[in-house]
Amino acid sequence: MGKFLWEAIQRSTTGPLMSEEEFETELFPTVLGDLQKKYRIEWDPDEPCMIDPDMADAIFQAGKELLLEVGLYCKNTKRIIKFSQEEIEEAICSAKHEVTLGHGRQAITLKPRAPGDEQHLYTFFPAGQLTTDVQLYKNHAITVMQEPTCDGVIPLPLFAVGDMKNIADTPASTLVCLTEARIMNEAAAWVGKPGLFFGIPMSATTPLALMSTFASGLYNKNNCTLPVQILQDMRVDYDRFNLAFYAEQQGIEPWMSCSPTLYAYLTGPEQGAMEIIAHTLGMLAYSGGTLTQAMSVSVHGTYVGNDISWCNSAAGLAAERNLKLPWVSFGMTGNPAGSLSDDNWYDTAAACINGCISGMEALWLAGGNTGLEARWAGEIARAAATLSPKQGVEIIKKINAAEREPNPPAMKLDELYDLQTLRPKQVLVDHYRKFTRIFRDLGLDYPTWDH
Amino acid sequence: MATIADLRQLVSDTKPEEAAAMTGELLAAGHAPMEVLEEGVMNGLSDVGDRFAAKKAIVLDLVRAGVTAKACIPLIQAAFPEGEGAKIDKKIILGTMLSQHNIGKNLVSTLLSIGGFEVIDIGEKNSPWDFYETAEKEGADMIAVSVVFAPAMEKFTELIDLLKEMKVRDKYPVIVGGAVTSKNWADSQGADGWGAQAKDGVALARDLLEVA
Lengths: 451, 212
Prior knowledge:
The structure holds two protein chains of two kinds. Chain A folds into two domains: about 1-95 and about 230-250 and about 255-285, no CATH class; about 100-225 and about 325-440, Monomethylamine methyltransferase MtmB (TIM Barrel), CATH 3.20.20.460. Chain A has 15 helices and 18 strands. Chain A has helices at about 5-15, 20-40, 55-70, 85-95, 135-145, 170-190, 205-215, 240-250, 270-285, 305-320, 340-355, 370-385, 390-400, 415, 425-440, and strands at about 70-75, 80, 100, 110, 120-125, 150-155, 160, 165, 225, 235, 255-260, 260, 290-295, 295-300, 325-330, 360-365, 415-420, 425. Chain A is about 45% helix and about 10% strand. The N and C termini of chain A lie far apart (about 50 Å). In chain A, the strands form six sheets. Chain A has a seven-stranded parallel sheet with strand order 6-5-16-15-13-11-9. In chain A, strands 2-1-10 form a three-stranded mixed sheet. Chain A has a two-stranded antiparallel ribbon with strand order 3-4. By secondary structure, chain A is an alpha/beta fold. By secondary structure, chain B is of the alpha/beta class. Chain B folds into two domains: about 5-80, Methyltransferase, Methionine Synthase (B12-binding Domains), Chain A, domain 1 (Orthogonal Bundle); about 90-210, 3-Layer(aba) Sandwich (Rossmann fold). Chain B has a five-stranded parallel sheet with strand order 2-1-3-4-5, sandwiched between helices. The longest helix of chain B has 21 residues, at about 35-55. The radius of gyration of chain B is 17 Å and the shape is globular. The mean pLDDT of chain B is about 90. Classes of the chains: A alpha/beta, B alpha/beta. The interface between A and B is medium-sized, with 14 and 10 residues.
């Protein structure tokens, strides 16, 4: 639990009143713009990564001041929850810097790593296709979990169990989330990794469904975390506080996360990075979490591009130098192009290298649509571990400039994997080998890459 | 002396008070209301939209541009000569599905009003039920929906299903438009009409409501 959860709750009933519109169109953007100017935080659109330590420190200071000056807007009461300078400092000083995820032989401990450290990024792969077919969901999870570079998984949301749709705010949502948890446990046992880390429950979003799922024991403090994520642009509601308190009561690690949307109320990646720091400090204050997931998205609907990767790396490096929380960013592209597209493989690799050189500790949803793409993300994260920031940026620029084949039609899992043996078919293996050759030529190599 | 280009610039710069004042000046100087609307206000809004597409403007700028247009439009509406905006006895429910975006919706509202329709503007952040309930309560003749981001597309489909389930689908022609929509998508969802631009809304309404 955060050191200031009770203060936050109290202040949500006593803090200054303000309409949400005034908060989001006046107070927040004005302070953000002023701080960006004050700290001279600027992005060069030609740069995919932020590797300047001085700017990283400036971003951290700006993010800290953003929380101090703006506070968190409570949607329930229309009041602003402010934290003092001393409280923010205390939250920073009392933060834990390591976290153990999973258990038994699959337990991993995320410790601070600086750019260039030998310790590789841990990779949590997306498991279970976006589907209503439970068996297909399980098969997909197995193809991912069986990969040797799988350090943990993030279950993809199940849309239904049989005829029962995943309807939010109803027991159906809890039932679907329980099914997700059951399948994750079964798949992990099937591949001989019963202690695997399962990330966060993804088929449920409401506190009731999340708490009910944890009450079953299928997800528990040893294999899963509980989301306490802040809402867009410095907003909270009472759900965040209830989840933070429940996590503390049950000894579950909070999953602190934020995903600023660039070009909505943020003018670009500079403000996105500042907001990530402010969000993280806010979550630290009310939840006392350790594991932090931060990634930016664009209001234009993309997860890739220099602006997105610069924002992610800037926030990651700012946190690495000033917070040392176990930091997780996004390791896939969100591109529906499919498993045989060049785009997905190049852009996944770029995201992994970006994480390595920005001093992050892990990537979530690393990989694409299949187990072999997940394996690819894990291998790149390991092969790139010791790259200096400069070397990493050079490789990412080459990746971005690479000539790419037009995207072929997306293929289904049964076209890419033998669903009896759950082994990849030759067409996918050939694509994987093509990319291992390309990346060896770019200066990365991995022991299992057989050329 | 103020020009239409100056007004376009003020709208593009999202300066509501100055833009409203200049709108008054231009109308007083004898510019046609439709010219002020289309070449001053709508082109200024398009400029902000173009900057947004190029990542040189943000959603907040779009919201501010909407506020600026809203400051100018009542003056323009009031300046239309008697008879040009003759009332048509048809009521249209108009709103944005889910999101807070309102530029396109406000323009459609203005143009429909100028075209003589009675517009019940239910604003932003609406659910499918809001459209249905208001249409029933107001005795509407048509529903017009602004869909400007992906989650709202799904809600539009829900609206069509809801109208079918409530057995009123035939009662209300439904038209849709907005940044993320296309004719193919609108057709596939069972919409009765799709507009690429705000002005298309008027033609669709006249056609679907059989207004001569």
